[in-house]
Amino acid sequence: MNVPLLDLQAQYASIRDDLQRAIERVMDSQRFVLGDEVRELENSIAQYCSTKHAIGCASGSDALLLALMALDLKPGDEVITTPFSFFATGAAVARLGARPVFVDIDPRSYNLDPSRVADAITPRTKVIIPVHLYGQCTQMDSLLDVGERRGIAIVEDAAQAIGATDNGRRAGSMGLIGCFSFYPTKNLGGAGDGGILTTNDDAIAARLRRLRTHGGANEYQHEEIGINSRLDELQAAVLRVKLRSLDKWSDERASKAALYSQLLGDADLSFPLVTPQIRTDRRHIFHQYVVRTPGNRDALMDHLKTRGIGTKVYYPIPLHRQECFFYLGYKEGDFPEAESAARETFALPAYPELTETQQRYVVDAISSFRH
Ligand SMILES: *Cc1c(COP(=O)(O)O)cnc(C)c1O
């Protein structure tokens, strides 16, 4: 049997006709950038995320960059974030000349540990970026509280968490700005790159709309220097079709996750395997189903590979160990939880169309591993 880490073909087959019609509609209009499709998508995403505004842009990475530009992040400013994330989270900070200040993660949720944040705050701290990793929200209450008390903006990296909730609040609606990615492998993925920002703040929304079109209120008048980061109509049209099924898909991911955790819990394993923490006060949309096994991760992944099962490590090198961030002065051992998560965790195939037979095959393959 072959169980790829992700199979987009099955999803495509289920919405092929609607997608083809949407793409044809854009081709017939011959309007390709920031038109009606983008506007409609922005309205739908704002509604979906319970925010007043949504502003489309070219990628999740650009969403992070635009958010920090809209907050006037400057050289010398500090931004607190997690070292256990996709590269873009730290890069957006550094690209503006500001300093990423990493804070270790909670070893069960793999998200930024809010209890460690206060100690990292200095007079230069301008922003905190929690990353809702794997589709589960960071514990937001104490972060929001500290942000409010100390006048620090919270920017949510919700690239993996569209539709996730924390205490009933949607990802992207809790901080000042939310950043989302429509990269094809995300829960809501386009047919190429794309991203969107969410906010309840009118002034920030207007600023973001300017910044994504070279800082101009119109084509030839520029109040400030922005970037070219527009969302195109083809992406928006595809995403509007997919958005209709997003909740169904995310619920299906969550039920695959529940079955994995049940089967793995019942399995007679000869080694420790930690399944994801599922908190009852939040909706986890399971962008990834990530397990942890101390000591034998790579051998287990090889074992699964020989049985046709795709797995992947998110993320093998924490940000503070990336060469481009060596100048920050961090060293091995500074963030032990992030470092051991990088050594011990990996993702199993968990997408809406995965069958129970495939899941049982994966669990049987894990059970047959001897270390
Ligand atoms: C995917 C992702 C991004 C970047 O999104 P792109 O659209 O690929 O630029 C940023 N942060 C996290 C946590 C992500 O998973």
Walk me through this protein's architecture.
- The structure is a single chain.
- This protein is an alpha/beta fold.
- It has helices at residues 8-29, 36-48, 60-70, 88-95, 141-150, 202-211, 233-266, 297-306, 336-344, 356-367; strands spanning 53-57, 78-81, 99-102, 125-129, 153-157, 165-166, 169-170, 177-181, 195-199, 216-218, 221-222, 282-283, 289-292, 345-348.
- Strands 1-9-8-5-4-2-3 form a seven-stranded mixed β-sheet, sandwiched between helices. It has a three-stranded antiparallel β-sheet with strand order 7-6-12, with no helix packed on it. Strands 10-11 form a two-stranded antiparallel sheet.
- β6 (165-166) and β7 form a beta hairpin.
- The longest helix has 34 residues, at 233-266.
- Residues 59-61, 85-86, 88-89, 131, 157, 159-160, 181, 183, 193, 195 line the site of pyridoxal-5'-phosphate (PLP).
Describe this structure in a few short sentences.
The chain is an alpha/beta fold. It has helices spanning 8-29, 36-48, 60-70, 88-95, 141-150, 202-211, 233-266, 297-306, 336-344, 356-367; strands at 53-57, 78-81, 99-102, 125-129, 153-157, 165-166, 169-170, 177-181, 195-199, 216-218, 221-222, 282-283, 289-292, 345-348.
Instruction: Report the CATH topology name of the largest domain.
Output: Aspartate Aminotransferase, domain 2
Main pleated-sheet profile: 7 strands, mixed
Binned, the helix content reads 25-40%
Spatial strand sequence of the major β-sheet: 1-9-8-5-4-2-3
